[in-house]
Amino acid sequence: MKTQGETMKEVTPTLPGHFLGAHLMDEEEINEVLEVMRSKSIFRYYGPQLLGKTDQFEAELARFLEAEHVLAVSSGTAALKTALQALGIGPGDEVIVPAYGFIATANAVVACHAVPVFADIDESMNIDPGDVRTKITANTKAIICVHVQGVAAELESLLDLANGHGIPLIEDAAQAFGGTYKGRKLGTLGAAGCFSFQTNKIVSLGEGGAVAMRSSDMYQRAAIYHDQGCVRHDGFPTWNNDACFFGENYRMSELSAAIGRVQLRKSRILLKQLRELKAQLRHNLGAMGLHLRRVPDAEGDCGVAECFYVQDEQIRNEIIARLKSDNVLATPSYNSAVYENRMFYNRRVAHSSGSPFAHSQITYEPGMCPAAERLARLSVWIPVIPLYDMDKIETISEAVQHIMASY
Ligand SMILES: *Cc1c(COP(=O)(O)O)cnc(C)c1O
């Protein structure tokens, strides 16, 4: 057996400088938070003078997303884990995830003691339904798609596949809050949609998340799982109920929900602004003849970033360095396929048994998902932030044109 060191490629870390809703925080969020502090009731289910911000935030999210059920949770990872647990996914199960994106998606699967199976991506930087089809086995219990950087995955084909095999599709919409696919909000087409409200995301509470669900049974299970396995009556918990099962604490705090209500209101304007800016940027870069990321449904794009491909990795890194020195917020983004992070090759978990891998034939090897490895190294990402205006978009476009003229 060859040692991993021989085939593994180096992965260069970069600190994300891409803030969206966070840039819009002002007195409005501060006042909502102060209101909660003055009520001395920061826990969502009871307190001396409960204001019910989390209940309100959930109702407002449901209205905005046009979702049947929304559960607020403590992070995007908690949202994924809660969705997987609510669907009963665990040991022995395989969950298909995209080979490109943030590691949290696969982590949540392993945290449920299920095994992530990677499907390759295409030039949309999102999961390739054709490759998903080849990865489905009798053990596949869910498919998770990620709407990477605000661009919808091919939901129609993915839903056909999932429905055809009787397995749920979970949308990881952590980077795509408010985006749409054929007019419907991302996160509401699959069995569950998971959102993150972490600091880099469109709706920013520092930490936070939500799960949107279609089925009321699934919603009940999610609510139980995220709240130590209890059911509540008038805010008070009981475990004296046959619906109860072992859970964790992924509850949202009233402080977070207070910020969330304001951020949600602002997200409408934010998304409108980002979309206009990105459309112009995309138009400009397209006019230069650059090889742009494919966007299946441009109308629903959140507009958080543009991405184009160049011919090799070294040139890509050079271009990014030159853009940065021209004050353009360019980034290689994830820079590798998800499974190129060491713990996948080593199948390493906290417990020495190596569960869930101990009972699975699934392994991870360099070259498994060639498009993800290649596109991760050839893509230049240009984030769009709410501090930009059309003049800034023109300045960025000119910088790109000037630099790309030498390649
Ligand atoms: C941010 C993110 C997550 C995790 O969200 P946290 O709130 O940081 O736990 C999951 N999936 C994707 C695609 C993300 O971008």
From TrEMBL:
<keyword id="KW-0808">Transferase</keyword>
<keyword id="KW-0663">Pyridoxal phosphate</keyword>
<comment type="similarity">
    <text>Belongs to the DegT/DnrJ/EryC1 family.</text>
</comment>
<dbReference type="GO" id="GO:0008483">
    <property type="term" value="F:transaminase activity"/>
</dbReference>
<protein>
    <submittedName>
        <fullName>DegT/DnrJ/EryC1/StrS family aminotransferase</fullName>
        <ecNumber>2.6.1.-</ecNumber>
    </submittedName>
</protein>
<dbReference type="InterPro" id="IPR015421">
    <property type="entry name" value="PyrdxlP-dep_Trfase_major"/>
</dbReference>
<dbReference type="InterPro" id="IPR000653">
    <property type="entry name" value="DegT/StrS_aminotransferase"/>
</dbReference>
<keyword id="KW-0032">Aminotransferase</keyword>
<dbReference type="InterPro" id="IPR015424">
    <property type="entry name" value="PyrdxlP-dep_Trfase"/>
</dbReference>
<dbReference type="Pfam" id="PF01041">
    <property type="entry name" value="DegT_DnrJ_EryC1"/>
</dbReference>
<dbReference type="InterPro" id="IPR015422">
    <property type="entry name" value="PyrdxlP-dep_Trfase_small"/>
</dbReference>
